[in-house]
Write a sequence for this structure.
């Protein structure tokens, strides 16, 4: 319960002593000055999602990183939306932020970048070799690095679909599934799909969202449940729902826990998106240095292979094989043909329109 | 116990004398008219921490969000308040919260009063202890876990529905709707209300009741004309606490509402965190705090001053 | 005695309903915590203590539990003098703007917790006291203070002011009157209030969430964060640990002062 966590002071004192010397396996020669800037911190705090997400980061990135550098990694499971104001307030007030690395959705990370609280990662080693989606769009430089893509799949209970997987998202409107349909509580992952399922097309986004809103109005009649990652698992395992739009990772984790769940990509497509890593401003120089090394490590072949295969998601490191159970799965896009079935909305469009879509979504759903 | 002191006076007395002299020096008798305010100072100062927070919110609420930088614009404007009044969803959600607060308060009081009454009046010490313990234990289970307990009981394949389907009826929708939120809130508020009512009931002499009944009043008449009026301070106090806590609740609608029975606190949460609009969230907070405080003031006015235990001196 | 019977039926009927309502979810959770499966479910699949074992082995659980105790103690210690004095002040003295003051002192309940939490995040951040645990205790005291004030004033209503006057007339100095007459009279209220403050602080997660970081996380916040991604039976096991603590606290209270103290009236 020590209150003394002013790493600046600690850092300066050690800097003056000149005792710090970076010796980790990851310390690159050009950074290995014999000064406080590379002094190893006592730990790195990485914000993460829990459950299958956190376990994959622990095993795929955090543990090997600790093994290589000797720096323990602590995962902080504060929700992504809830860590945001804490980081913003810290940066605004000139305090040291509560975490070192934020594992975040690309949209939220981009918002934090616009707000000016992110450290530029352009000097990271290994960025050049990654797939182009690693680089954030609509914003200068590298305020974040995307680390994999993921798909908001149509997850369903096979018992409820004896004739095979649902072919269209419109099945959600079937009165048979009244009260047994679930979406994310902010409409995330579904907004562009709603437009297409409501009779619109990609070119309607973002200027004409009305078909999507109409789809939501029709869906509202069917009394959908709105929740977050954990809710979907709970609802599937308690037989509360038959069909949901959720990230494939959750569906796969539920299936691995013995819950009877399958997933598919209906004809309207599924939204594909990315997550990334970023570092908040205001960290002591040595902690920022080692945070960068952490992200650098997360985009190495070794880490990407393990982390992403545990998640069951396509990495940004090129040429890696999918895990056996996902080979050929539409929710694990690799070839250009796979991506054609999926719907991608550029980050700048999302950042600018998400608040508007959210307001409309909640207006319809809270009616 | 402490009678070993040299002067013959017990040690504790001398200690108190010392404290008294210190107090007399620091706080001369001339200031004793201010004693009441001095007593209130720590509590007022603590609550002032919230007022400072509210001050930030007032400032935030007067600036519009700039989506290009996700910061609030420099210029002052009433856009956020305008948004509140223009979007029917906010009025609807506020109305839903107010209605829930009223319903929950009513049901909770109806349930809590007999509980408190029996706990005070029962002649069996064991019964009394049982009722007290049954009241305290659920206190220690947070809202989140209790809500999970409800899911197991009320879910589509839950305990109640397995009975319902067992006798050949179609399963009922018992959870993830407005009534489920009300139920969860009543269960959460019940111990508070009982504890708030108990002292008020305990203060009513049993002889008064007996007198009323011996004069021919039925027990319902005695309750209506004697017991409840005498317990009014406790009832109003419990009512105000349950009402305000329900009005601003976040967790129950979040967990038991299935995402479509949001209260105003959920809308505030969404503005702050989901869409990062601290200006709009602040405006909603200010509106809610004003509405809540105005209703409390109204209730205090209607009920007179003898409420929330803050009774006038009976002299 | 048919009147007496109908009274008993109605009152006991409502009370039994309350008892079921209060204890049903609790009993379900206790039962579910002994499951050997991976899912919180009732009736549990088999019987095992594996989720308790898992908790026990988790160092972070024990640390978080200790921090929670610390925070709750700070909250209770701050609220006892603040709440007691405020209740006596508003009750025993001529105060102007009494009603406005009552509305003011109810602000902790009329401001949503999310807003209080965010406001204190910014204010404590300015003061550079975030990252310590004691401000969390103070914050929890602030948001629950009306309970303490209520508890004391409810019992102070029963306090006979003649007794204080008599003591003063016999020459007792004010401090002596306070400690020998006033305070003992409101003691039941102080104890009720203190227990409430402790319990509430022990469970609070929404405001704490903003004021702790992962180095000083408390148990309710840890639980709240963990259920955002996945819900496992250790959640039920934690609740049972809480209930055990509650049983211990209630038992201790009964041994030390007697539970009757909650029902005492003058």
């Amino acid at each position: 319960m020590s209150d003394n966590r002013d790493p600046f002071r600690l850092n300066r004192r050690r800097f003056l002593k000149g005792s710090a010397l970076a010796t980790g396996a990851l310390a690159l020669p050009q950074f290995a000055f014999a000064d406080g800037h590379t002094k190893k911190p006592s730990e790195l705090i990485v914000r993460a999602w829990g459950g299958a997400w956190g376990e994959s980061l622990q095993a795929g990135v955090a543990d090997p990183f600790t093994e290589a550098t000797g720096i323990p990694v602590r995962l902080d499971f504060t929700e992504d939306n809830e860590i945001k104001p804490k980081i913003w307030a810290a940066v605004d007030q000139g305090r040291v932020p509560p975490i070192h690395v934020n594992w975040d959705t690309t949209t939220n990370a981009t918002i934090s970048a616009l707000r000016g609280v992110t450290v530029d990662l352009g000097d990271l080693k290994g960025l050049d070799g990654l797939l182009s989606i690693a680089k954030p769009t609509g914003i200068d430089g590298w305020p974040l690095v995307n680390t994999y893509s993921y798909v908001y799949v149509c997850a369903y209970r096979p018992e409820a679909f004896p004739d095979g997987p649902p072919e269209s998202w419109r099945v959600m409107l079937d009165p048979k599934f009244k009260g047994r349909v679930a979406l994310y509580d902010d409409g995330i992952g579904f907004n562009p799909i709603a437009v297409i399922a409501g009779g619109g097309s990609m070119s309607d986004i973002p200027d004409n969202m009305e078909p999507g809103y109409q789809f939501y109005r029709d869906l509202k009649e069917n009394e959908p449940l709105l929740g977050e990652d954990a809710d979907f698992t709970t609802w599937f395992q308690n037989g509360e729902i038959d069909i949901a739009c959720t990230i494939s990772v959750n569906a796969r984790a539920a299936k691995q826990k013995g819950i009877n769940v399958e997933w598919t990509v209906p004809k309207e497509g599924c939204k594909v998106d990315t997550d990334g890593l970023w570092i908040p401003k205001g960290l002591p120089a040595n902690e920022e240095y080692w945070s960068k090394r952490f992200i650098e490590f997360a985009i190495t072949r070794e880490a990407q292979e393990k982390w992403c295969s545990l998640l069951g998601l396509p990495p940004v490191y090129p040429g890696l094989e999918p895990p056996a159970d996902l080979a050929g799965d539409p929710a694990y896009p690799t070839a250009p043909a796979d991506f054609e079935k999926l719907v991608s909305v550029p980050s700048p469009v999302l950042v600018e329109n998400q608040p508007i879509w959210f307001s409309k979504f909640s207006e319809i759903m809270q009616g | 116990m402490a009678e070993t002191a040299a002067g013959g006076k017990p040690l504790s007395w001398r200690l108190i004398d010392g404290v008294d002299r210190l107090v007399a020096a620091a706080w001369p008798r001339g200031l004793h008219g201010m004693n009441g305010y001095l007593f209130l100072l720590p509590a007022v100062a603590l609550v002032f921490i919230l007022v400072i927070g509210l001050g930030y919110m007032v400032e935030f609420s007067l600036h519009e969000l700039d989506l290009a930088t996700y910061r609030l614009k420099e210029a002052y404007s009433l856009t956020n308040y305008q948004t509140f009044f223009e979007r029917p969803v906010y009025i609807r959600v506020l109305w839903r919260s107010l209605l829930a607060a009223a319903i929950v308060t009513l049901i909770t009081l109806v349930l809590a009063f007999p509980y408190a009454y029996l706990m005070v009046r029962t002649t069996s010490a064991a019964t009394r202890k049982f009722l007290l313990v049954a009241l305290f234990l659920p206190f220690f289970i947070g809202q989140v876990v209790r809500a999970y307990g409800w899911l197991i009981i009320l879910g589509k394949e839950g305990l109640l529905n397995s009975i319902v389907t067992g006798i050949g009826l179609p399963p009922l929708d018992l959870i993830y709707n407005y009534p489920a939120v009300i139920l969860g809130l009543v269960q959460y508020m019940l111990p508070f209300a009982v504890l708030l009512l108990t002292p008020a009931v305990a203060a009513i002499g049993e002889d008064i009741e007996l007198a009323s009944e011996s004069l021919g009043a039925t027990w319902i008449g005695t309750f209506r004309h004697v017991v409840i009026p005498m317990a009014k301070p406790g009832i109003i106090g419990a009512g105000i606490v349950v009402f305000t806590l329900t009005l601003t609740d976040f967790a129950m609608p979040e967990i038991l509402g299935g995402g479509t029975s949001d209260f105003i606190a959920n809308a505030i949460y969404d503005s702050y965190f989901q869409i990062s609009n601290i200006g709009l969230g602040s405006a909603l907070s200010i509106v809610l705090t004003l509405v809540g405080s105005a209703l409390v003031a109204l209730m205090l006015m209607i009920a007179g001053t003898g409420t929330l235990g803050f009774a006038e001196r009976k002299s | 005695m048919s009147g007496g019977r109908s009274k008993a039926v109605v009152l006991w009927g409502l009370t039994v309903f309350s008892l079921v309502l209060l204890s049903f979810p609790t009993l379900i959770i206790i039962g579910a915590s002994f499951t050997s499966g991976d899912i919180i479910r009732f009736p549990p699949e088999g019987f095992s203590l594996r989720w308790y074992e898992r908790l026990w082995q988790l160092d972070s659980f024990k640390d978080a539990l200790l921090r929670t105790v610390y925070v709750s103690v700070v909250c209770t210690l701050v609220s006892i003098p603040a709440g007691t004095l405020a209740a006596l002040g508003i009750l025993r003295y001529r105060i102007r703007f009494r009603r406005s003051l009552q509305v003011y002192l109810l602000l902790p309940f009329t401001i949503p917790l999310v807003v209080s939490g965010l406001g204190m995040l910014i204010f404590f951040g300015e003061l550079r006291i975030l990252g310590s645990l004691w401000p969390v205790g103070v914050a929890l005291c602030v948001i629950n203070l009306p309970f303490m004030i209520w508890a004391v004033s409810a019992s102070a209503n029963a306090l006979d002011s003649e007794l204080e006057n008599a003591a003063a007339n016999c020459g007792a100095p004010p401090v002596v009157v306070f400690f020998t007459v006033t305070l003992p009279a409101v003691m039941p209220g102080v104890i009720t209030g203190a227990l409430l403050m402790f319990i509430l602080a022990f469970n609070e997660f929404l405001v704490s969430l903003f004021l702790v970081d992962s180095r000083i996380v408390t148990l309710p916040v840890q639980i709240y964060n963990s259920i955002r991604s996945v819900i496992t039976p250790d959640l039920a096991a934690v609740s049972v640990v809480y209930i055990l603590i509650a049983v211990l606290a209630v038992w201790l209270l009964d041994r030390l002062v007697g539970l009757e103290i909650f029902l005492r009236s003058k």
